[in-house]
């Protein structure tokens, strides 16, 4: 009996650094970030890409890796008040935070606390920040004490990079792309075999990867959602002894695509 129920858990729409997959795009991004993080000459880094390609995943992986060596802060949902970021920076240094202080007092405290160090601040979904917040980030990055890694949607990112706050500043821009067909197959087989589900991994071939790529258009989040649904269907078929659907076939793949809305059934 194949344990499809357990296998589906690895494809949940969550961000788990332990399930990191090194696609070509991810490897390029990771290598560039590893070289830039900790370098005060590169105070601003932008990871841009379409929704669901894996930006949040690489942010958490790099935050986890960087935190082992230096001070880092990860903001998963953009702050809407500078005091939210101040609080994170205070706590990262073990300092008590008093929300009633002025901005000048906050900055004086932080400059004293972080002098001689470089703190890397990761902000996900940064396209949601407003102009005042971006200006605040620019001011902090100009101190050479704080380095920012901002992940954002591609279209908004391109517009932002042309704004006066960032256009002439030293920065690293990384474009995060989709998975290729061969990477989809490698992702499925590497993940499943690595977690003792080799019997399920071997059900997939280049053909299934090609079909999944066509439906999901190479989008990492959509691929995970597709595979999660496919595991549920296979689990149901196995428990109900539906022999026709206990092996991968075009019908099962179409059912998975329909279930998550990749095909219009009207």
UniProtKB/TrEMBL annotation:
Species name: Sulfurospirillum diekertiae
The protein's name: ATP-binding protein
AAA+ ATPase domain mapped to chain residues: 41-178
Keyword Iron appears in the UniProt entry: no
Record InterPro entries: AAA+_ATPase (IPR003593), AAA_22 (IPR049945), ExeA_AAA_ATPase_DNA-bind (IPR052026), P-loop_NTPase (IPR027417)
UniProt keyword Transmembrane, yes or no: no
Source taxon at top rank: Bacteria
GO molecular function: ATP binding; ATP hydrolysis activity
Swiss-Prot/TrEMBL keywords: ATP-binding, Nucleotide-binding
UniProt-listed CDD domains: AAA
């Amino acid at each position: 009996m194949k344990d499809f129920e357990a296998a589906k858990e690895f494809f949940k729409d969550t961000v788990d650094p332990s399930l990191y997959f090194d696609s070509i795009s991810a490897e390029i991004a990771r290598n560039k970030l590893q070289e830039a993080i900790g370098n005060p000459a590169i105070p601003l880094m932008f990871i841009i890409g379409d929704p669901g390609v894996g930006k949040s995943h690489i942010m958490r992986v790099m935050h986890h890796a960087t935190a082992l060596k230096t001070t880092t802060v990860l903001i998963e949902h953009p702050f809407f008040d500078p005091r939210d970021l101040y609080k994170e920076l205070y706590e990262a240094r073990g300092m008590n935070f008093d929300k009633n202080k002025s901005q000048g007092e906050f900055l004086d405290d932080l400059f004293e606390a972080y002098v001689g160090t470089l703190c890397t601040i990761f902000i996900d979904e940064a396209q949601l920040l407003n102009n005042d917040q971006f200006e605040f980030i620019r001011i902090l990055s100009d101190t050479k004490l704080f380095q920012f890694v901002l992940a954002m949607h591609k279209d908004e990112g391109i517009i932002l990079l042309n704004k006066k706050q960032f256009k002439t500043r030293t920065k690293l821009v990384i474009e995060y792309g989709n998975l290729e067909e061969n990477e989809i197959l490698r992702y499925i087989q590497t993940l499943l075999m690595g977690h003792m589900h080799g019997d399920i991994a071997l059900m997939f071939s280049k053909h299934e990867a090609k079909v999944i790529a066509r439906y999901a258009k190479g989008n990492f989040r959509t691929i995970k959602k597709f595979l999660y649904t496919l595991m549920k269907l296979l689990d149901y078929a196995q428990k109900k002894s539906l022999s026709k659907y206990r092996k991968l076939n075009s019908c099962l793949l179409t059912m998975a695509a329909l279930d998550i809305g990749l095909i219009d059934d009207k």
